[in-house]
Amino acid sequence: MKVLFASAEMTPLARVGGLAEAASGLVAALRTAGIELDVVLPDYSKAELTGEEARPLSVPGWAQPAAARRGSAPGVGDVTLVDVPGIARTHPYIDDEGQGWPDNDLRFFAFSAAVADLIQTSRPDVIHLNDWHTAAALAFLWDRPPVAFTIHTLGYQGWAGGEWLPRLPQHFSAFECFGQVNPLAGAVQVADRVIAVSPTYADEIRRPESGMGVDHLLNQLGDRLVGIRNGIDTAVWDPATDENLTTNYSMATLDDKDVARADLLRAAGWDDSTVPIVGMVTRLVDQKGIDLALETAQYAGGIPFRLVLLGSGERWLADWARSAATTWPDNVFFEDGYNQQLAHTIFAGSDLLLMPSRFEPCGLAQMQAMAYGTIPVVTDVGGLHDTVIDADADRKNGTGFLSVTADTAGMVDALHRAVRAWRHKQRRRGIQKRGMTIDWSWSEPAQRHIDLYREMLSHG
Known about the structure:
Blueprint: E1 2-6, H1 18-32, E2 36-42, E3 50-56, E4 67-73, E5 77-83, H2 104-122, E6 126-130, H3 131-135, E7 147-151, H4 172-175, E8 176-177, E9 180-181, H5 183-190, E10 193-196, H6 199-204, H7 215-219, E11 225-227, H8 257-268, E12 277-284, H9 290-296, E13 306-313, H10 315-327, E14 332-336, H11 340-349, E15 352-355, H12 365-371, E16 375-379, H13 382-387, E17 401-403, H14 408-422, H15 425-437, H16 443-458
Helix pairs in contact: 1-16, 8-11, 9-14
């Protein structure tokens, strides 16, 4: 089976959030399972390819010039990189001020048109498109194979002005919304199957309060909308082999996790601590509940805990985090940006991981944390609901702590319960080991994708 897989991100070539990690993990697992994949990404940075072959692409005049380079990239394998007007940028989506590039509509509609040309010439058995950046490819295809479209997050739909409507030659009515263009809504209506990245998220987005204006379209899909939980790359996220750690450990040597804890304390500039360290590695955006975490930090001395936050994103949240670290230097540490070694040290060295997300299509950090024996404290939404079992509600099977509300009161309560459990080593070890025994790899999710591809092919 030959699958063309198109995405705006993929680790390590382009990484902004979970899309990059999910694309990378799924592609690797599908290839391991024997699926022939043609991976197509934007050529943001002119990355070097081994065995490179270049070719022009046939696209509408407004999307010219367009070209593709095919070769092999470290950490990705065989890949096709697409160059269209304006696509090469220092950041895939935003400028140095944190604002979206004003020509993102042109950039990704042109990319989609280029993807469509690659599909017409390579004739894959199945097309797999990811998020709005690739959605408009369906507007440039006449005769096409079955299409799976994955919604990694419904919060970004790619809205563009009505002047784009005449440039989309197919499925005009699907892509048109209130005189404008909504790429995600168009793909939802045209694709043969729509995938949400967790079962609970697939249910949530059918509701008006979570459907972000397209719940009525998602409800019309019936069983064409499926939820498949993401996985994590267990070769990268494994404390027994992680080269970012000064001392490796496993479930059998869990006491060695204390070395990572000491390393994290040093990185934060803190002395040894008898209170739990709460880690966060996240994008600084409203969805992730960063404001809730920072509001909760004012109670750090009373619960008690110390908060270590690593991330980048919206400036107002970064400024708030920086202010909190200045105001409470003994309780809050913040580093703006992404530091791979520090990220891995946070997952290994933290006692608890905080994810106060307002919505979470799947989430990867909670699975990465559990693999490292770090107990997640999360809101009861989306993929967090599917992956974390509250240890107070189910003492036999619990793997973390859930807040039923995405607010400060709920997070304070969940953190308080988590800290109380952490203080009892026997109970703590039980929760940690239950999380570490779960297979969070891409093996099962990849097989579910393969089954879905085959189902689409069997229906013609």
